[in-house]
Design goal:
There is one protein chain. This protein is an alpha/beta fold. It is 50% helix and 15% strand. The chain has 21 helices and 16 strands. The protein starts with a helix and ends with a helix.
């Protein structure tokens, strides 16, 4: 009865160990990690002192990948030559190998003295689609445990289960290598970055990128919304020694405060409600590469000291874990707010600001580099239309006088709309006016100047408020090339109301348009 209970307990332990192995193998795609899990499990199940798992190269006994493990540090590991001799036997016979004297059975002549202690051995093949791809090999010392046919059976079960995971891991590694080769090819082509512009401010930005990219210094990119902060960060990454490693971008303004720590540092299973599995954070995913923190001013104050600590110590813990994870990550941060002012007001940690602001790069708004608008617009429409469309010079002039308060992003949105709705290969100013994209509101200085000229040109006794209203209608019509709907929208009234005012002041769309445009041009 006791013997039956003992055997039952042994079977239960074997099943638990195999289940644990299956879970570990299911969570890894690395060949080294897969082989390591296999040998550790089989050592336990076979009560072996020392073991090795060997993968064969091209169907021969030449080992392409070998991992050797011992149950105790003081134990002499299996000799590589012995592994290859036994591997050759397994490969030729395509059967498991079992002996009480491995040196004699393998025909190992003149072994080193350190190997004379070896005796019992068991080796089983790893097979996939009828081909032997490797073996699991265990050896004990003379006088130690003798391996049995039950040990052979257990090792074969491990081998049969493990083979499919080894093949899967090799496929994943091959794919990763292919991806790396593609990245290498792309990196060779990425000698330039997509920051278009020949203006003095943009030349300075490119010069700053060239200077800072080779270093590992933290960079703070400052600029209004839509000026190209992420493009700048990517340019720094692409021109840095980290270009073949990950570039991970995080929009701090889009993350709920209670999820921020998990997003950056990851979490363990069960760390909080809904954490059903372990998740790596952005820092871990960016290891070896670059982490871009956009709109860093939106990061919760309570989390900022943790970020500062990671920047200084290069290590952190996942939420719900105590183990420290070391990372090599370069941090690039960006903000559309003045972080110096925010730090002075207590809205941003002063120490973190100085840590991030090692090298500041200031991006100019589009209104300060209007000369770049034609280059940008022409490049954008070529890209968006696959090279089929371009702008006429009058269209580029019209786009250049707009304010573009949303900067390059707003310009790109407008060009994308043009590329969709204008079906001609060459886009003119009239095409842009028809879409209403030239409207930018009436600038205060221009309006004051136009109204001043209108008022003082009228005869004394005229109603000044009516003069102002009439001139406003004329300017709006001029801005919108005579399109009443667009003009009404520009000054914020209904189309019918605009038409009634035109009738009231005797403004004609035709006839008045030329004089209005001349007056607007003189202003």
């Amino acid at each position: 009865m006791n013997n039956n209970v003992q055997q039952l307990n042994q079977r239960v332990n074997e099943l638990e160990e195999l289940n644990c192995l299956a879970q570990v193998l299911g969570g890894t795609t690395s060949v080294a990690e897969t082989l390591d899990a296999i040998i550790r499990c089989s050592l336990t199940l076979c009560s072996a002192e020392r073991g090795a798992v060997v993968l064969f190269e091209g169907g021969s006994e030449t080992g392409v990948h070998t991992i050797v493990r011992n149950n105790a540090p003081s134990i002499q590991p299996i000799d590589h030559k012995l592994n290859m001799i036994v591997g050759g036997i397994v490969l030729r016979t395509k059967q498991s190998f079992l002996t009480n004297d491995v040196l004699e059975a393998a025909g190992y002549n003149n072994p080193p003295e350190s190997l004379l202690i070896l005796g019992p051995s068991v080796a089983v093949p790893l097979a996939s689609e009828g081909k032997i791809i490797g073996m699991i090999h265990h050896v004990n010392s003379r006088g130690g445990k003798l391996f049995s046919t039950n040990d052979v059976r257990v090792a074969e079960i491990v081998a049969n289960m493990a083979s499919q995971f080894i093949v899967r891991a090799k496929v994943h590694e091959s794919l990763r290598k292919d991806i790396q080769n593609l990245r290498d090819s792309l990196a060779k082509e990425q000698h330039t970055h997509p920051l278009i512009g020949e203006s003095e401010p943009m030349q300075k930005v490119r010069a700053d990128i060239a200077l800072v990219a080779p270093s590992s210094a933290n960079v703070l990119i400052i600029g209004e919304t839509g000026t190209g902060k992420e493009l700048t960060a990517r340019a720094i990454h692409n021109e840095s020694p980290r270009s073949l490693k990950p570039f991970i971008a995080v929009n701090c303004a889009a993350i709920p405060a209670d999820l921020f720590e998990s997003e950056l540092f990851g979490h363990e299973r069960g760390a909080f409600t809904g954490a059903n599995s372990m998740v790596k954070g952005k820092f871990e995913l960016a290891d070896g590469g670059t982490l871009f923190l956009d709109e860093i001013a939106e990061m919760p104050l309570g989390l900022q000291p943790k970020l500062l600590r990671v920047l200084e110590e290069k290590k952190f813990s996942r939420v719900g874990a105590s183990e420290q994870i070391c990372v090599d990550v370069r941090v690039l941060a960006a903000s559309s707010k003045d972080l110096a002012e925010a730090a002075a007001a207590g809205e941003f940690r002063d120490a973190l600001f100085h840590r991030l602001n090692v090298v500041p790069i200031v991006l100019p708004p589009l209104r300060e580099r209007k000369g770049d608008i034609p280059l940008l617009a022409q490049s954008m429409i070529q890209e968006l239309s696959s090279g089929l469309k371009k702008f006429e010079s009058d269209a580029l002039e019209l786009l250049s006088v707009r304010q573009w308060r949303g900067n390059v992003r707003e310009l790109r949105n407008a060009v994308e709309r043009i590329s969709i709705f204008v079906q001609k290969k060459t886009v003119t100013a009239e095409d842009i006016r028809a879409l209403g994209l030239h409207m930018d509101g009436i600038g205060p200085a221009r309006l004051v100047s136009a109204l001043r000229e209108a008022i003082f040109s009228e005869q004394p006794g005229e109603n000044v408020s009516e003069i102002v209203e009439k001139e406003l209608l004329k300017i709006a019509l001029a801005e919108c090339a005579g399109n009443i709907s667009h003009a009404a929208r520009l000054i914020g009234i209904e189309r019918m109301a605009f038409q009634r005012r035109m009738e009231k002041f005797g403004i004609e769309k035709s006839g008045e348009r030329e004089s209005v445009e001349k007056r607007s041009a003189s202003v």
